[in-house]
Design goal:
three-stranded antiparallel β-sheet; 7 helices; Glutaredoxin; alpha+beta; globular
Length: about 230
């Protein structure tokens, strides 16, 4: 069984202290990475961490679970994309995060049609396409499951400084998966804009994240003549 490891060595190379990462202890990891390695900061206009210009654009090539098609970032151009790394067997962080995203999308109302949540599995050994597709279906049509080879997943995780490990079971150790709980938010052009450090904390920043997404959607919608005219008066 292949093993995926996005090592904490990346953090050491960036002079970021490497705490012991466990399934329950990764909530703050993405926030630390966002502040220390991406150069992003909250400029007072966003509730989430502003990473504009300091994180790579959306770029990937994966298999979409719902139809088995090969897809890339081009398939989601024009949408606000939330990129998340997780796995379907996750007992707490992933279902909590996705349930809170459902709540956020509900708050967006009609604007939710401009948003896609891309769930990249870090556990392709168990997350087959049918398993992943069924899991996404339980959260709604805005949720897209993506699966790649271990090397493809590791490369994408490194691109966004995401820490994840899959350790196969041994006689002395159970099967274990760890991953950070960050959500990267990309605008309609594919540019990285925001980092939501976690939606699996208590209380989750649901209203604040919804407000950020609504603002991004507002910048995405084409403006009519009267709207543009009012903007310059």
């Amino acid at each position: 069984m292949p093993k995926i490891v996005i090592s904490l060595q990346d953090m050491e190379n960036m002079n970021v202290s490497a705490p012991r990462v466990t399934r329950r202890g990764v909530f703050g990891l993405a926030a630390a990475l966002g502040a220390a390695t991406l150069g992003g900061c909250n400029d007072g206009q966003w509730n989430s961490i502003d990473i504009s210009g300091s994180s790579p654009r959306l770029a990937f090539a994966m298999t979409r679970a719902s139809d088995g098609e090969q897809v890339s970032e081009a398939d989601y151009r024009g949408q606000i994309v939330l990129l998340y790394f997780g796995y379907t067997f996750c007992p707490d962080i992933c279902p909590t995060t996705l349930s809170n995203v459902v709540d956020i999308l509900r708050r967006l109302g009609p604007d939710a049609r401009h948003v896609r949540f891309l769930f990249v599995t870090v556990d392709p050994n168990r997350d087959t396409l049918p398993v992943l597709a069924e899991y996404m279906k339980s959260f709604g049509p805005r949720f897209v499951g993506l699966r790649g080879t271990p090397d493809e997943i590791a490369a994408l995780a490194r691109r966004y400084r995401v820490v994840a490990t899959v350790l196969p079971a041994t006689k002395d150790h159970p099967y274990e998966v760890t991953h950070s709980s960050a959500i990267y938010v990309f605008d309609a052009s594919g540019a990285a804009r925001l980092l939501v450090s976690s939606l699996a904390v208590s209380p989750p920043p649901i209203a604040a994240t919804a407000a950020d997404l609504k603002r991004l959607v507002a910048h995405t919608r084409p403006q009519g003549f009267l709207t543009r005219l009012m903007g310059v008066v």
